[in-house]
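Sample 3 of the quickstart, ligand erythose-4-phosphate:
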Amino acid sequence: MTVNAEIHAGGNTWRSLPAAQQPDWPDSEALRDVIAELESYPPLVFAGECDQLRQRLAAVARGEAFLLQGGDCAEAFDAVGADQIRNKLKTLLQMGAVLTYAGSVPVVKVGRIAGQYSKPRSKPTETRDGVTLPTYRGDSVNGFAFTPEARTPDPQRLKRMYQASASTLNLVRAFTTGGYADLRQVHAWNQDFVRSSPSGQRYEQLAREIDRAMNFMNACGVDPEEFKTVEFYASHEALILDYESALTRVDSRTGRLYDVSGHMVWIGERTRQLDGAHIEFASKIRNPIGVKLGPTTTPEEALTLIERLDPEREPGRLTFITRMGADKIRDKLPTLVEKVTASGAQVAWVSDPMHGNTFEAASGHKTRRFDDVLDEVKGFFEVHKALGTHPGGIHVELTGDDVTECVGGGDEIFVDDLHQRYETACDPRLNRSQSLDLAFLVAEMYRDQ
Ligand SMILES: O=C[C@H](O)[C@H](O)COP(=O)(O)O
Ligand SMILES: C=C(OP(=O)(O)O)C(=O)O
Ligand SMILES: [Mn+2]
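Result:
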């Protein structure tokens, strides 16, 4: 084997280990053909960009920056349209502007976008009216429609995932570098939200302060070109390992492996087994890695994850995304943070206040209460304040559209409203106004810290 081939084979060491949550592809030959084709496709991101994000996340780990990571629970192929992508991006940028001002720290902006097409599920099948079919595992695997045809895993979908990711990322890059995302414009959108939202007055003071700061910078003669572009990164859960490893390449600059399907990838709560394939795969790539930590995580597990994924203790390499539930965060997080800090590791701590707070409404809709989401973030800040550690960021499921999937918020959604615009293919997302509410409220928390 040549040196490169040997390194490349390193991206496949996961194959001998148990891989949780993988689809039951009916035709392994068809899967092999798809993998071979994916291997010939160009990278979606450049390894140097992954390194840059790792440096940004190192600042988060050191307490000098804040991570805002957000987007859909599950992206969908039929939602790869200009309006939806723009609205999502716009919402994230608006949140980012508010948090930057209030925290007076750089906000690292990372979308759950351009690759978030695969879902781990709690049950392998779904039964409706006596009919049982495979569960929906994301558009990269099967269709959402409840028919045997749609629910049969089809590897051709992995190619559509690549194409959908490529088109999304292309538009995101155009918006963020082409002038659409100019900070002055983002600020004007925020002013508009404060003026027009029912709870807007609450945020008037903060919005006015930001306005004054903008005017101050203008008066000082800060080059307006500085405001024109924004750094934005793409991330998704590295779930379907056949896809992720087909897009894992040797970086010509460094000779190291990078998963070029996205800048950052994370390993989910259901696939973070220490001796499993996902952690093995993640250990071989140089991208910044996130790992979700639920309420059953022990400090020993967290320390072993650090050993496996960040043996060199490199700030920015590893982000722990805690998703405990509002009722558990104050109880479960302190020991984890204490033990990890005592070990000398410098990880970034980020709060996912969504996945520990899901429940089923009487109408059958999977939903979350805005107040629980807020309370988990509050608990996360409290724990870090008490320990003198840095609350490094938030990881949220959101959309820029006016959906009705989570209850509560300043422009309150009631349980009876859920059916009106319940559009998610998997988990309930904060809508545009709930997302902005959250940003203003987290900004206040960050400032009080
Ligand atoms: O984000 C995803 C969900 O939390 C996960 O797929 C589990 O959802 P389920 O319980 O509906 O399967
Ligand atoms: C499945 C998800 O989260 P977790 O792995 O934390 O349950 C998700 O982020 O959509
Ligand atoms: Mn989810």
